[in-house]
TrEMBL record:
UniProt entry tagged with the keyword Membrane: yes
Protein name, as recorded: ABC transporter, ATP-binding protein
Alphabetical list of InterPro entries matching this protein: AAA+_ATPase (IPR003593), ABC1_TM_dom (IPR011527), ABC1_TM_sf (IPR036640), ABC_transporter-like_ATP-bd (IPR003439), ABC_transporter-like_CS (IPR017871), P-loop_NTPase (IPR027417), Type_1_exporter (IPR039421)
Record bears the keyword Methyltransferase: no
Keywords of the record: ATP-binding, Membrane, Nucleotide-binding, Transmembrane, Transmembrane helix, Transport
Compartmental location: Cell membrane
Transmembrane segments: 66-87, 175-191, 250-275
């Protein structure tokens, strides 16, 4: 989703909460520049004192002594330099802190919004591209607020004050210094318009590069096992080269800005130097005024050369702002319900009534399916790959929304329940175990943060994990690496089971929970299954039928439809799909 507003307007709208800090920073920037522009006037006044002596401008105020006049100028210089330094410190601190605050808040807002989006959004976008928005794009905005905003304010203040001073002091000469201004402003706007699409392309290319890098780092084991290092270097080289070339196109244009502006500035400076000098020699312009004009011309025009760098920062920031704001504008389609259902009140009965679901642009994965999972019972769902078993898990957790039909928990439609209550009531052990970089204890307690070590060890013992954990170098404080890569697949799965047990949910879903464990570990988990499933609804999704043979009811799915149901013995008697799968897996002919 995109917004037609300019990135700057969207940034201003977002920054509404910081208006007090912004006003303070703007005031300090403007005041600093006002005092920064005062020294040329002091120099002109000093020249006037030296040349005119008792007839100087200060003398006309009643101070005729030359030393006293110079002393007054010295005291004014001290005050002005002091205030300039004070306001420089103030604006630096204010702008930098503001940049850090907005960067911090914007990143948190973007991440929080990202977490609220449904799974389909993530499946269409790479992790690296999203990371590029959360990090690189927000950092670009921070760099602009750190430097560029103050630069624009100070240049604007310079133009207004010096332009007005020229018109007041020497209206007949000032036009020469002011003549280049329209061309400089026109050039800045023209460059900005031409740079905008080039920097948008730069941001897109860097996000693609980041996406490829993140993907490769995640899959480094696969890359090594297939000896594809050279191939991946070629791919990264191509992505990095595309990023470099898009930057070169932007640089080629932005680098031309300053030299062109310098030529216009030079024309204005030469005009004041020659024409103003001749006017001073002819006596039509005071020497002190001429000195002020020469100094102010330089102070007016030379800072404009920095517009190139500022413009560069601005365009990069606006390209990044567009991407961040587009993320924030992405609508949240999965809305929480209103009904609260605390975990302590959940009985655990789940019912699916005529549900149909399809992933975007695909045929239905589940079609007109009805299932009943009574509270406190162990229900198994089996079937061939692609039959829709794991999709059911996503629907039960409302990671996706059903297109037709209803799913209820204790008779309440899941869409009416508060999402946090629903997901707190369900514990999931997925076939694709995800463990965080951290200690064993941190991974087991994830989601159940306020628990004691004895509770952690109890959960680990039920999951048959305590023994191997004690053999690790630091036991429960052992760092297991990103995604738990220092552990075997079976060890990872047992930690995931312990994590779900510690959560103690009224509904426990085991999605191929023993798929990565060896026969001995599977037998150990089976021995503890009675304890795990006590007083809770357990949904076991499995390929290996040996893990679900003792379930209270087994549902057999095929191509998104329910084709059989019953106990293990009842299904064997039917001599259909389940019986065939059992014979294949058990070796019975």
């Amino acid at each position: 989703m995109t917004n037609d507003q300019s990135p700057l307007k969207r940034l201003f709208a977002y920054g509404h909460n910081y208006r007090t800090e912004i006003r303070q920073a703007i005031a300090c920037s403007v005041l600093n520049k006002i005092f920064d522009l005062a020294p040329p006037a002091l120099i002109g006044a000093a020249v006037d004192v030296v040349v005119q002596k008792e007839d100087s401008l200060i003398a006309q105020l009643g101070v005729t002594d030359i030393f006293t006049q110079l002393l007054i100028l010295a005291l004014l210089s001290l005050i002005i330099w002091g205030l300039e330094s004070l306001f420089e410190y103030a604006y630096n601190r204010l702008w930098r802190n503001l940049a850090q605050t907005i960067q911090h808040d914007l990143r948190l807002d973007a991440y929080a919004h990202l977490q609220s989006l449904d799974l389909a959004y993530f499946e269409d976008r790479s992790t690296g591209r999203l990371m590029s928005i959360l990090n690189d794009d927000i950092n670009q905005l921070e760099r602009f607020l750190d430097v560029g905003a103050n630069e624009i304010l100070q240049v604007s203040t310079t133009v207004v004050i010096i332009g007005a001073t020229f018109v007041i002091l020497a209206p007949g000469v000032s036009w020469m210094a002011l003549l280049p201004m329209p061309f400089i402003l026109w050039g800045s706007i023209a460059f900005q318009r031409r740079l905008a699409p080039r920097y948008a392309e730069v941001r897109e290319k860097v996000s693609l590069l980041n996406g490829q890098l993140a993907n490769n780092l995640t899959g480094i084991t696969t890359i090594k096992s297939f000896t594809a290092e050279a191939y991946e270097i070629q791919r990264i080289t191509a992505q990095s080269e595309a990023y470099r070339q898009s930057n070169r196109r932007a640089i080629a244009l932005s680098a031309a800005f300053v030299p062109l502006i310098r030529i216009l500035i030079l024309l204005g400076f030469i005009g004041i130097l020659l024409y103003g000098g001749m006017e001073a020699v002819a006596g039509r312009l005071a020497v002190g005024t001429y000195s002020v004009l020469v100094f102010l011309t330089q102070r007016l025009l030379w800072p404009l050369t920095r517009l190139g760098q500022t413009l560069d920062l601005y365009q990069r920031a606006m390209a990044s702002t567009s991407r961040v704001m587009n993320l924030l504008d992405t609508p949240i389609t999965m809305h929480s319900g209103e009904i609260s259902l605390p975990v302590s009140q959940v009985k655990g009965e789940l019912a699916l009534k005529n549900i149909t679901f399809s992933y975007q642009g695909r045929h239905p994965v589940i079609e007109n399916l009805s299932l009943l999972m009574p509270a406190g019972k162990t229900i198994a769902i089996v079937g061939a790959t692609g039959s829709g078993k794991s999709t059911l898990v996503k629907l039960l957790l409302r990671l996706y929304e059903v297109q037709d039909g209803t799913i209820t928990l204790d008779g309440i439609d899941l869409r009416q329940l508060q999402l946090a209550d629903l997901r707190q009531a369900i514990g999931l052990v997925s076939q694709d175990v995800f463990l965080f970089h951290g200690t064993v204890r941190e991974n087991i307690t994830y989601g159940s943060f306020n628990v004691t070590l004895s509770e952690v060890t109890a959960a680990a013992e039920i999951a048959e994990a305590h023994e191997f954990i004690c053999q690790l170098p630091q036991g429960y404080d052992t760092i297991i690496g990103e995604r738990g890569q220092k552990l075997s697949g079976g060890q990872q799965q047992r930690l995931a089971i312990a994590r779900a047990i510690l959560k103690n949910p009224p509904v426990l879903i085991l999605d191929e929970a023993t798929s990565a464990v060896d026969n001995e570990t599977e037998a150990a988990i089976q021995r503890s299954l009675e304890k795990i499933t006590q007083n809770r609804t357990t949904i076991a999704i499995a390929h290996r039928l040996s893990t679900v043979r003792n379930a209270d009811c087994i549902y057999v799915m095929d191509k998104g439809k329910l084709v059989e149901q019953g106990t293990h013995e009842q299904l064997l008697e039917q001599q259909a799909i389940y019986a065939m799968l059992w014979r294949v897996q058990s070796g019975v002919k």
